[in-house]
Here is the input.
Amino acid sequence: MTPSNSKAYALIVDDEADIRELIEITLARMSIDTKAVATLAQAKTAFENEPFDLCLTDMRLPDGEGIDLVAFIAERRPHCPVAVITAYGNAESAVASLKAGAFDFVSKPLDVAGLRALVGQALKLAGLDHDAPPHPSLDASPRLIGRTAEMLRLRETISKLSRSQAPVYVSGESGTGKELVARMIHAEGPRMGAAFVPVNCGAIPSELMESEFFGYVRGAFTGAMRDTPGLFARADGGTLFLDEVADLPLTMQVKLLRAIQERAIRPVGANVETAVDVRVICATHCDLTAEVARGRFREDLYYRLNVIEVHVPPLRERTADIPALTDRILEGLTRKLRLRQVPRLAPRALEALQHYSFPGNIRELENILERAVTLSDNAVIERRYLRLSSPLSEATAESSPAPAPAEAPDENGTGRPGPASSTPTPDTSADLESQLEALERERIQAALEACHYNKTQAAKHLGITFRALRYRLAKLGMN
Here is the structure.
């Protein structure tokens, strides 16, 4: 068939005539012109001679593998989306095709509704869906700040991943911006017009996980007064971001694996499964391979989630980005706190930040700057207001012999006689409530820094529940 100027043009590759016919009929009803061939050689010849906008290919062909066609198209026309048709339950083939550069995969027997959804996503990716919302500009979409080589490579990787539907595993330390990376992958891809649903797996009680993820029907349990969609249903057509996925209990890992492989969920109390079209992006600060080795994370789920891994570098490896990050954070604090002018760091303060290790990464930088803005009376923030200390450095200082209090610098940097004793004078001017709040704030801050700003671990460190920590953070204004 010769394509019209206004229609998309798809190449269909399958050695089964009834499959080719089913796909042709489905795409024709979507106003897509098609060309169907039966072999790998015919597909390569057709692709070199005609301007296809997308391709659907079977994994096993009489003269080769569909994955070879994926690589062939990726080399010659990388912006043409290719979807692979795999045998039912063959997760290994599906993962291999995604790693080779396939846009997505569909399993036999073909589900027409699922096929239409997949093709719709491919049209958006190819820029041929005129009903799709415009692609977000850099100013409208989430942004990673920085021009170091590490950040340029990360942005390039995000651009490539946004054109795929493969599950992505975002690794990196706490506070590096893993959720921001996930949002950028979503915002720059064909699912940008649908929902991005983030969830902290460590914050959901284990007994509520199944109903939270898959929803429930009316009467499923006491208090279930109406049908309630879960996280998968809310992310249908979009992206589900599983943060701290290593915190999932093993029983939930089994159910999550099935939902991802079958692309279907069964709400609690329901008798039938419901198809869902969700791209899964997960993240954790843990080493998942080590968790698998310890038996705390399922190996099959690990390989299903870690189709493509993207690593977010810690802030200490890109200190040249700190000035730009600082400017952006201070601009945000100006709007949040309704300041008259944007605060700026004194040269010594900025130099101190660039020599700090940042165990809590960007999240810690935000916390440090907000505290400094609150403490400083001037638009120029001096170094002393940064209070760059951590439990580790404090422990080192305590174990070291105290220096003789001969001289102590004043605010102008000149020396003056030091105090005879280093024992702090109790603050009798503050009431008991204020002192208790200050102590509570100090203990929580120390726990957060010790746990690299992982709130779940900080709660365990403090010996309280996650909900109790969240309440105290809100009460003290530390969110």
User: Anything to note?
Assistant: DSSP finds 19 helices and 18 strands in the chain. The two ends are 60 Å apart (CA to CA). The CA atoms of residues 433 and 439 lie 10 Å apart.
